[in-house]
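Journal club prep — side note

Before the paper discussion, L.F. wants everyone to see what a predicted structure for a comparable chain looks like in token form. Sequence:
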Amino acid sequence: MLTVSKIGPGDVPPDAEQVMIPMRDGVRLAADVYLAGAADPAGARPNAVVLVRLPYDKNGVYCFMPVISRYFLARGYHVVVQDVRGKYRSEGATEFGLHEADDGCDTIQWITGQPWCDGDVVMWGDSYYGYTTIAAAIGGHPALKAVAPRVTGSQLSMTLEYGDGTRDVEQTARKFYFASHYVDADRYEWAPDWSRRPLRAAFEEFFEQLGKRSPNFDAEFTGESRFVPPPVKALLESRPVPALYTIGWFDNCAVWSWHDVRALSREPEWAERLYLRLEAIDHENYWLGHAPVAPRDDHASAPAALERMLPRYLDPAIEFFDAVLGRSGDLAALPRVRYEVCHGGWGESDAWPPPQASGLEYYLSADPVPALTAEAPPQESPLRWTHDPSDPVPSAGANPFASLFDRSDLSSIGRREDVLRFTGPAVGEDTDLLGTVTLLLRLTAPAGAHVHTRLLDVTPDGGAFLVAKGQIRLDVPLSGEEAVVDLQNIAYRLRAGHRLALDIMGSDFPEYVTECPAGADPWSGPPGEPVTREITLGGSRPSCLRIGRWQPEQLRRARERRGGGS
């Protein structure tokens, strides 16, 4: 029998006042109000308000909202923390993402009507409660002066399509999230048995044991899902507000962050208000410098570790909000991009990629063994691997949201027969790799094929550690044309004696669903039979890895011009 824990709402802290805020349809959402510098709410002077809207319990231990609220209070802000519709103490149906633009707008309207609000509201948050900041910007309330979304994006949890016959492989996290957080107002902690087939079997066991189901989960299979997030186009067409996006180099949700940032950077009115902070963190805010994380550094369980984390976590947003609102500092003086170099220091730039982006090309070679080389092999040659969906390549760690918590040595993965590992030469001195990471892969595979890639740091003693990753699913067959795999971006110091390596494989499970037969559902059917894939190396159009200023969109358009699409 599964072990399932139900997590209900925590207690409202004594320094907060819970209020029920009415929405336009009459549903009331629960919120805690923290007022700076006033023991009596009636005596609070008007001030700017930080609004946080989340589905994880405004009073729970997971997101430590009371601690965060007090940090903002100490910096002179009033704070409102709200349970989103259908969660914990808020009324309404439990529906993922459906009402966040309107509910955010209505909440801001209520805040601006309070005597303790001076008319300025800013929003901050991680993940889903970062998504609610973006949704509120789409909602367009004029009192919203700035947003600081972290490790999130406007298309959060969606499978992105790239317009060139490829799309992302589906992450399993979306359906697991619906079965954990969107059954009802509470949260359920449980661990699926990912060895079960079909994949859906473990979820059916969970629902049977629970005695209820998640309508959000079920709608994924019936085609009746009501949640389709406003496209990034809706954000681009909204009233621009200053936005500070924080992106983690090891965040499994970074694909959605970069999707927004690339689009906003092309829109002049948004671009002039866009700021980036790029950190060596994962989705749960674990830091590379602590990986693997010792108990004393685990902010989820050690109060002292949380206390140490807060300045890094919150000060950038406070500095940003202060500058936007004219409280202190000068917005024009803030660097547009601050980026942390993994195993190095911090850099600043007016744009990303920075002017000193690497401009490196590594060619995939297999003579005599798979390698990354400075020169392309002069002759074309095929390289094949066989992928068995029944025996998938394991994901890098136990929890994709906390990849740095137990940062894994992936050296043994490279010894699997279904993984192609291309290894470069050892660097003679510390070398900073900066910019976009894009793989041009001449691929022969049918529609429905998955390709997963990992960029690795190989240590002198043979350890292999994840630097970046990317994946695609083909919607059209390819016969030697170039597939563009976006491994996002990096700022990574390859230390002296270390080597860069690239893994190519057909699975990354259980973080991503495995391949299945054409027309089948990977959740409801058996895994497919073993299949062989082929890449072409060398020649006049060699498969290559690029690190620097190359944008995946430009490479995809070039591929289309060469007839590499459908």
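L.F.'s comment for the group: Residues 303-325 form the longest helix (23 residues). Keep this in mind when we get to the figures.
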